[in-house]
Amino acid sequence: MSEETQEKLKQVLQVLKMISEDTSVPRNIRRAANESIDAIETDKVDSAAVKASNAISILDEISQDPNCPLHARTRIWNAVSILETISD
């Protein structure tokens, strides 16, 4: 995995941890953020692109939730846009 890809994943993890620790965000959104963190940090998949794709699918689903606050949705979109730039 390239250094650039590792840096992108660190940025995304930081954003997702902010969401998961924000008590103003509904519990299901925080849970999905934690699931995305787990998808990125898993050792089962070697490819960074697959990890990014798994996290994107989780985040895309919760970004559509009408209960998601605007500040959290904006952070989710930022994380997804970073993840979309990751490829093998």
What is the number of helical segments per DSSP (H or I, 4+ residues)? 4
Provide the CATH topology: de novo design (two linked rop proteins)
- List the uncertain runs: none
Q: Characterize the biggest β-sheet.
A: none
Tell me which CATH architecture applies here.
Up-down Bundle
Which structural class best describes the helix and strand composition? mainly alpha
CATH class category label: Mainly Alpha
Helix content: over 70%
Radius of gyration: 12 Å
Count of distinct structural domains:
1
Could you say which overall geometry the principal axes of the C-alpha atoms support? elongated
Strand share of the residues?
under 5%
Total number of β-strand segments?
0
The fourth-level CATH homologous superfamily is: Ta0600-like
Q: State the distance separating the first and last CA atoms.
A: 8 Å
Nearest-integer average pLDDT: 92
Question: H/E series, N to C?
Answer: HHHH
Structural commentary:
The chain is mainly alpha-helical and about 90 residues long. The chain has a single domain (about 5-85), classed as de novo design (two linked rop proteins) (Up-down Bundle), CATH 1.20.1440. About 75% of the residues lie in helices and about 0% in strands. The chain is built from four helices and no strands. Helix 1 (about 5-20) packs antiparallel against helix 2 (about 25-40), helix 1 packs antiparallel against helix 4 (about 70-85) and helix 2 runs antiparallel to helix 3 (about 50-65). It is elongated, with a radius of gyration of 12 Å.
